[in-house]
Fold each of these.
Amino acid sequence: MKEGITVNINISPKAKNILEWVYCIIIAIVLALLFRYYVGTPTVVQQPSMYNTLEEGQRLILNRWVRTVHGEYKRGDIITFEAPSNPVPSAFEVDMNNPVAEYNYEPKGIFAKFAYYVLEFTKTSYIKRVIGVAGDRIRIEEGKVYLNDEELQESYLREGITTEGGTFSNITVPDGCVFVMGDNRPHSTDSRSFGCIPVEKIESKVLIRFWPFNKFGKVT
């Protein structure tokens, strides 16, 4: 009968300590990524399209749990979403019977998808306000917005701001979509240009502003 061969691997206390730290760091990174993707994450405003509700350089906490649990989005919510593939399509490229923004980019391979959807290294996102939800009739006329044939009262707009129409200025929001616009209407590329946003392309809802401190609190 042959005896088994036993191999003893001796790891020095110093190497063992390093390995433990490596394990801890890996676990912390994984937990942070899971929290960032499924629960919430900080971000910095990088666009002027929501001025003066939000200003460039301000820091926000985004609620991503609403996406995780497939929650609802209501009129007035400020959301972030994946930028459409064609933000300003020509009149020949749109289908007025299906006024939905075009999304035709899909990263190839598991690492490319991880970088795009989780790390968001190569992803562009927009931040806008929900104006209409599925079934709402949106009409923009003479500088005003009409929601279901009633003029929309927009107290969040700066005095003197008017809303110019675009390609999608008289539509009904399709099922599973929202119609969005920036508060800084003259300097916002939004649903007036690219159409309604599918709910599955929404990434988060703005929860609070934490910087600057004198404007800390819920954003409305």
Note: The chain has four helices and twelve strands.
Amino acid sequence: MSLKQRICPSILAADFTKLGEECEAVLAAGADWLHVDVMDGHFVPNITIGIPVVRALRARLPDAFLDVHLMISDPDQFAEEFIKAGADLISFHPETSFHPHGLIQRIKTAGAKACLSINPGTPISCLDYLGDDLDMILVMSVNPGFGGQSFIPSALEKISKIRKRFPSVDIQVDGGIKVENIAKVKEAGANVFVAGSAIYKSEDYRVTIEQMLDQVR
């Protein structure tokens, strides 16, 4: 099975004073999904955006795929509200859910795709009874909480092991992805790539996205 290679700019690195225009710009430049990092200042040491921003993005960009990453301490309470606001996919961390299998089922019942996010220090054994029910697995290649961090090399081994166990599931990688290392990440087994600073801090979004796609094709 051939999995589509996708580039997903993280809006965390965008200019928030013109967020709508920034999202439109990366989509026009060839981005596949918009990656929306939701942080609560509790599970991670930062506070970003929430349900009203997702709702506003959905209203402005009705056809965009909104990939919402919940770095929050209570996804059981909020996941369905984010889906109602317009999220197409919900990622959550196994450490944060009392009933992760149940949450996966609720996400799907609400009409979104379900993804489990695995931190650098989280063992992949968390997938033992969950992986077959997921639409995507997110491997964090930095510790969550801030943009602009450097890629953690041990993530490559984790990606490779997950790909061997789950050959047909999308594997997303988030953290420190750039033109110079995206090929190695793809070779390890990933096919969905989150890039924030590498795209939004570049001079030309289209050129950067095309360079990334050239590296993974």
Note: Residues 6-216 form a domain with the TIM Barrel fold (CATH 3.20.20.70).
Amino acid sequence: MQNIILQPSIRQKIDKRVDKILHDLDMPEPPLRLDDVRELLRLDLGYYQGDSDGLIHQTIHRLTMAGKQIIERPTILLDALRKFSIKALYIPDRKRILIDETLPKKKHRWATGHEIMHDVLDWHELALRGDTDVTMKQSCLDKVEAEANYGAGQLLFLRERFAREALDSAPSVELVKGMADSFGNTYASTLWRLVETIGITKPVVGVMHHHPHPRFSSPKFDPANPCRHFIRSDAFAAQFSSIAEMHVFNSISGYILPRKGGPLGCESVILKDDNGDDHEFSFESFSFYHECMTLCVHLRKRPLIVGVGSISDPTL
């Protein structure tokens, strides 16, 4: 899944909201305590079981969403939860975040941060309430989700605190792993934030994918959509817009080691920019057993080599 590149003006608006939260919390040290954030914003947190109709019905009974439509048909929310496999949601009328208990515990933190941003970004309210003019447009929904994801990354990684540490170090898989531990977040969200941070002017790509080697192939692997996350930096999206995720995945598959876990190899890969010029990227891959990570970092533009042959002088 390819990430959406947000406009700088939107990012600035989101950054200001996050900065205010962190300032009101006296600029906390990592990892950020989300209980403190919820207390500051007066947000409630509850859980439901995606495979338990009883608890979902109890939750729906107490909620008001999308005006009279939900009151008249309380199963609309239930239908949406099932149809779209929603694992977390924010209820604006009740200022309440709900998380599916079947979601792996390590993902609760990101889900909570994402839903917190739906509350903080007040222009999301129409979409959250089921406004027909908004929700009928998938592109608008995708943008709303991208904004919440961006805000969650800024919040959970403490904005400039993460940026300073990331820019002071050479980008690598080990850096992603170390910063994931220190900030208390998942490897995928840390990779995402690192690409955003170092990739404003530097072409960088982060990929979360299943193991491409046939011996370790996952039943979840979809050959048509091999990348769960294909994270392009601003500079990469601007200069290498023609590079598809399948092309990058095929490059990864070309050097990957037949190893179930741990380092899977490194390779220098040539990618063409939108002008047709060759650029050298460093690819580094690592397997966490259930999923793999690849970090692709721009190294240099390859010089154009022009062959010079002998020239006869017709006057001689």
Note: The chain has two domains: 8-156, 160-300.
Amino acid sequence: MFKDISFGQYYPANSFVHKLDARTKLILTIVFIVALFFIPSNATNRVDQAWYGYFGYMVTFAVLLVVIIFARVPIGSILKSIKGVLFIIVLMAVINLFVSNQGEVLWAWKRLHITDSAVHTTIKLILRLVLLIIGASILPLTTTPVAIADGLESLLKPLGWIKVPIHDMAMILSIALRFIPTLFEETQKIVATQKARGASFDTGNLFKRAKALIPILIPLFVSSFRRADELAFAMDSRCYNATNKRTKYRVNKLGWRDLLAFLFMNAYLVVILLDRYYWVFEMDRIIFGGWLGK
């Protein structure tokens, strides 16, 4: 339980992506997410052209492959992030498969039916979710929680002019990201302890399994409050926040790597926008129109 969850875990490496400024990676992650949602999941008024949109997903997959190669992150660590939400992906895909009423009916039973348009839309939904999870997981895998917090604080610095507590928000984020792997590890220890005492978490119906989680949640909450109390005392004893003019051990600086990364991701965004608004299905028709059907 929870052993396959890799969210919030940093993978140390000496790669091109690791050396990028945290602010650059935060901005480019947002650019990637925005571009991914500009890829259409259906053909709107062109239901007969079900292949529309696959070119964007193909380009996105190629971009992620390049980023993963330059990040030198193991594929297994990235796939773990998908495994953690696999049930949600399958559930959304099944629901979407039977909801759409457009297109030619491929299978029907009583009130249930599946159309060709629903199949293509479901495939694109799965591709969008998987690519989104993979792209978002690269940020915590290649950036330490402290660097993410510092980068976020730097990007939100203009909000400090209107008295928004940017530093406190960044510190809260840093602590939360730092303790996510710790809480997962603590949960594994509690589960192992309860199993040694004869507890079972994999048998019975849904309600019995939910009830079996109570011996895990209570010690986990107690441990979390204890860790938070100890951290508060440690920060207070070191006079944290005693002055508003705090200095930083590391100063973020943009370099040539950040410029190349910006150009690369902006080129990806331009290709996606061109495919959606200006190429008018041409790239999808040329590449996928022949074998996905018109």
Note: The first strand starts at residue 105 and ends at 109.
